[in-house]
Amino acid sequence: MEDNWALYMAEINGPPASLFINLDERPDADPDPRPYVCRLHLNLAAPSEDGLTTQEESESLLKLEDELTEALSSSHNGAFVGRVTHDGRRLFFFYLTNADGVEELISHRLRAFNGYRWAHVVEHDPDWKHFSDLLYPSPEEMQIIQNGRVLDALEREGDLNHIARRVDHWLYFPDRTAVEKFKSESAALNFKVELEERSSGDGQWKLRIYREDCVELNHINDITLNLYELAIGCGGEYDGWETLVVRN
Question: What is the distance between the alpha carbons of residues 16 and 49, in angstroms, rounded to a whole number?
Fold first, then answer.
């Protein structure tokens, strides 16, 4: 299975947090069970004003991450599944086949990285609750991740995201009543309906709406999260957006 890494931002008790997670990892992703989680807490040497990492420190932290990943993979069939950077600390998550000798191994590998204060906890977590509860994005955060991926693809094609253009959005609803409720509650947003039809397969109603918008990150996030919430409130679901590349 190819790694499916995602980076997203959140707030934890106020201050911003940066989360980096392999979305493809899960307890049944490998035939060898990894029922133990190792959480390694590392104090940043020189955090930014908002408690995140600076460009200067990032390279050292990535080398440290690679060193620990290689060590725990070799000794404990470990899987590095993600990290959280928040309030001047970085928290790494590894899932392991056993809990023996973890502290000694980490201590040995971190000797080359002088100046970092660290602590760790190894717990039995066969259901990967730490992964699902602390790392995995919410549906709204997942939408933001998907928005970022679409924007990355557009940027690679030379898109100028500040220029308004037609943006299409897809939504699905269980019945016609839910469709009409959504159309009523979203009327003030001035979207036009391109397609409204019932699927012959599952009987769901498909709605395609569009509007002229730029696709700058904060703007498209606001639009899609608003549509997501409206769709959920009407018993449906929001299924993403698409647009054309605009170069000039």
Answer: 11
- The pLDDT tens digits for 199-244 are 777 889 999 999 999 999 999 999 999 999 999 999 999 999 999 9
pTM recorded for the entire structure: 0.88
Query: Which residues does 202 contact at the CB level (< 8 Å), separation at least 6?
Result: none
CA distance 124 to 128: 9
Asked whether residue 128 falls in the same domain as residue 159, the answer is: no
Separation between Cα atoms, residue 248 and residue 23, nearest integer Å: 35
Residue 112: give the domain boundaries: 5-135
| One domain for residues 192 and 111 | no
| Residue whose token pair is 């191994």 | 105
The verdict on 213 and 107 lying in the same domain is no
The number of distinct structural domains making up the chain is 2
118 and 175 share a domain? Answer: no
Q: 219: helix, coil or strand?
A: helix
> H helices then E strands: how many in the chain?
6, 10
